[in-house]
Amino acid sequence: MKTCASCNERFNDGVQCTSCKKYLDFSCASMTDVGWRKLGADRRAQWKCPACRLSSPTLLSPQPTASLDTVLSEIREMKRQLLDLPTLVNDLRSIKDELSDLKKCHDFSSGRLDEFDTRLFNLESKVSEFDKLQDTVLSLQSELASAKHEFTSQDQRSRLNNVEIKGVPLKKDENLFSIIEAIGRKIKHNCPKAQINYISRVPIHNSKEKLVIVSFLNRYVKEDFVAAARADKDLSTSDLGFQGAPQRVYVNDHLSVESKKLLSKTKDIAKEKRYEFVWVKYGKIHVRKNVNCKTFIVRKEQDLNKIV
After folding, report:
1. Where in this chain does the record put each FP protein C-terminal domain (predicted)?
2. What distance in Å separates the CA atoms of residue 293 and residue 285, rounded to the nearest whole number?
3. C-alpha count within 13 angstroms, C-beta hemisphere, residue 94
């Protein structure tokens, strides 16, 4: 049994980085058992973990969008070429069968036999090239997953000081600072303007509602504000001075689009597997089956396999 250097979970079968010598399970290495076997002995002997590949001095640091587009374009081209592989394999089998029958015939022309041998050799060469191409696709897919994860992580880190407030109605000539002060009074947590970097409204996709985003100057002030708001289970629009039927107001971490998608999937699977706790803290998704079980963090979709 070895311990994964990324998630600290123990595992029987995984990979070892040739650079930092650390062990990772297949999930944290962004690959499958089959993909690892198909890399071949030479590629496995040179394999590096995502962290070491990103920190390698020989790699440039292109803009994330350009890097992802380039890799996706290469993968699409390679997949297009791979579409011919089944036809080539069928042709190869057909020719092998035909060649076997023809070799049994004593009157078969040696020139014809040479022609089939040449065709067979050419097809076998193409199949070999496609096998190598498939290995390259697997490697690029692994690099793409690693680059996408790093880009998503950087996007989420840029929001660590932010709070997302949902449920505050739009009002003409509204004063967002006054709204934050009203929330602070309700949750018994003072929030002076000196601690706030900016406040703004952000639209929600396919909705007329707009979120209130508060960016604090200090991450720990933000965490205290979120903790106080979550402790108050009945924060509503009436507490903020709005008329009409009270509507629930929610205060949460400001998650990126990808993190919100991952959180939604995590909640669905956790509910299906009867997990009791899913929450966000410091911009990370935490999962715990019950009060007697260990908490683990879901950083990427592969980590959802841990919810069993």
Report:
1. 258-308
2. 16
3. 8
> Strand pairing partners for 281?
284
The overall pTM is greater than 0.85? no
Residue 166 bridge partners (DSSP): 250
Cα–Cα–Cα angle for 162, 268, 158, rounded to 5 degrees = 20
The DSSP letter of residue 201 is E
Q: Does domain 2-55 have CATH number 3.40.50.300?
A: no
Q: Structure tokens of 149?
A: 């994860």
Architecture of domain 64-157: Orthogonal Bundle (1.10)
Cα Rg of the chain, angstroms:
28
48 touches 58 (CB < 8 A): no
According to CATH, the topology of domain 162-253 is: Alpha-Beta Plaits (3.30.70)
Task: State how far the Cα of 255 lies from the Cα of 239, in Å rounded to an integer.
Answer: 25
Q: Quick: pLDDT tens for 107-139.
A: 666 677 778 888 888 888 888 888 888 888 888
Domain boundaries defined on the chain: 2-55, 64-157, 162-253, 257-306
User: Can you state the angle between helices 85-103 and 110-157, rounded to 10 degrees?
Assistant: 160
Q: Which two tokens stand for residue 183?
A: 């929330």
Element housing 44 (H / E):
helix 40-45
* Token pair listed for 239: 């507490």
Q: How far apart are CA 252 and CA 266, in angstroms?
A: 17
CA dist 60 and 39 (Å) reads: 24
Asked whether this chain's domains 2-55 and 64-157 adopt the same fold, the reply is no
Beta strands in 149-289 (DSSP E): 162-166, 196-203, 210-216, 250-253, 277-281, 284-288
Amino acid identity of residue 258, one-letter, is: E
For residue 276, the Cα-to-chain-centroid distance in whole angstroms is 23
Q: At residue 267, does pLDDT exceed 90? A: yes
Phi, psi of 155 (to 5 degrees): -60, -40
Which CB contacts under 8 angstroms, 24+ apart, belong to 52-56? 52/17, 52/19, 52/20, 53/143, 53/146, 54/146, 54/150, 56/19
